[in-house]
Amino acid sequence: MSSVLVITGTGTEVGKTVTTAAVAAAALAAGRSVAVLKPAQTGVLPGECGDADEVARLAGAVTSVELARYPEPLAPARAARRSGLAPVRPVEVAEAAGKLAADHDLVLVEGAGGLLVRFDDEGGTLADAARLLDAPVLVVASAGLGTLNTTELTARELRARRLDLLGVVLGSWPNDPDLASRCNLADLPVVAEAPLLGAIPEGCGGLPAAIFRARASSWLAPRLGGTWNAETFSAP
Hints:
The protein is of the alpha/beta class. It has helices at 16-29, 51-59, 76-83, 90-101, 126-133, 147-160, 179-192, 209-215, 230-234, and strands spanning 4-9, 34-42, 63-70, 106-114, 137-141, 165-173, 196-201. α1 packs parallel to α2 (51-59), α4 (90-101) crosses α5 (126-133) and α6 (147-160) packs parallel to α7 (179-192). It is globular.
């Protein structure tokens, strides 16, 4: 795995933070040092726990860094504008990740929302930061109906920008998957033209941290430091 991994989603509430925590936990279990960078945290007040804090709570001894925090739950560019605070720009994200990479084996950069959510009024996005970092991108997708379209659109945009799509992780695999979810196990790698690299169980963010850490590797494929096997998982 590259020393910097950018983690994006096909939209909001698809399980990016819990997936980031699982990747971090697997890396820590393998003896790697890990930093988590959240460029823009929205919808969280000063003193409250943000996504990077949640990753640290679940995964363990990671270095967690936020570049900016905005109180309203909006896209970062709009949230910055409304708050009167400075926006985050892709070059700042790349610089911060680069500095963390000098002291850590793995840096996880977790975006806000989807790949093209704007950080600033100039239209800078997480994709631009990934390009500056020359870092692979992991896409977190939902499991059920509608995910094929959003996943394919995200994958096409990554290819159009000549960014490396590492693979797709299902950010919240249902305890009782419906027909669409089961079929999507086979269809997602086809539309993404990239491998399925894991399935994070629904609700696992509510597990005690010690249990989360012990199980995280079993939810991720070897390419992410785990033991999960897509063919076995997909078997009837």
